Amino acid sequence: MLVSLDGFSKDQLIANKAEFNLTGKMENNKIQASAYMGCNQMSIPVEFRNKGKVKISQGISTMKACQDMKLESAFGKIIGTMTNYSVEGHFLTLSDDKGNSMKFVAADWD
C-alpha cells in the first residue's frame, strides 16, 4: 500500500486504494510489479540491484478514462525516476537523487 507521495494526503491514497504490488514472479532480481492508483491496472518491470539501487522501467497500463486521474498521472511520472530503495521493517521507500521519495507499507501489516 502506498502511504506517502508528495502532493497527496494519506486519506487520498487510501480512498484510491493505491497499491504497488511486488509479489510477482522474480527472475534475476527482476519482478513484474503491478500497481493500481484508483483507475487503471499497471504492470511495471522492477529490478533490485546491489547497494540499495533499483531500476524501474517503462510499464504498461490499461487505458480507462476515469473522472480523477491526478494520483495515477503523478505516480506514472515519478515511479520511473526512482533509483534507490531501502527497507525498514514493513516499509519500502523508493527515492531518486533529487530528494523525491515514495513510501509503501506491506499490505499484510496491521
Describe this structure in words.
The protein is mainly beta and 110 residues long. The protein has a single domain (2-105), classed as Lipocalin. 15% of the residues lie in helices and 40% in strands. It contains two helices and ten strands, in the order βαββββββαβββ. Strands 2, 3, 4, 5, 6 and 7 form a six-stranded antiparallel beta sheet that branches. A four-stranded antiparallel beta sheet has the order 1-10-9-8. Strand 5 and strand 6 (54-56) form a beta hairpin. The chain is globular, with a radius of gyration of 13 Å. 15% of the residues are buried. Residues 28-103 form the DUF306 domain. Pfam families: META. This is META domain-containing protein.
- Secondary structural class: mainly beta
| CATH class annotation | Mainly Beta
What percentage of amino acids are in beta strands? 35-45%
CATH topology name: Lipocalin
List low-confidence stretches: none
Helical amount: 10-25%
Q: Please state the CA-atom Rg, rounded to the nearest Å.
A: 13 Å
Tell the overall outline.
globular
Q: How many domains comprise the coordinates?
A: 1
H and E string: EHEEEEEEHEEE
Examine the secondary-structure arrangement and name the CATH architecture. Beta Barrel
Kindly state the mean pLDDT as a whole number? Answer: 92
- Count the strands? 10
* Number of helices, counting only DSSP H or I runs of 4 residues or more: 2
What is the terminal-to-terminal distance? Answer: 12 Å
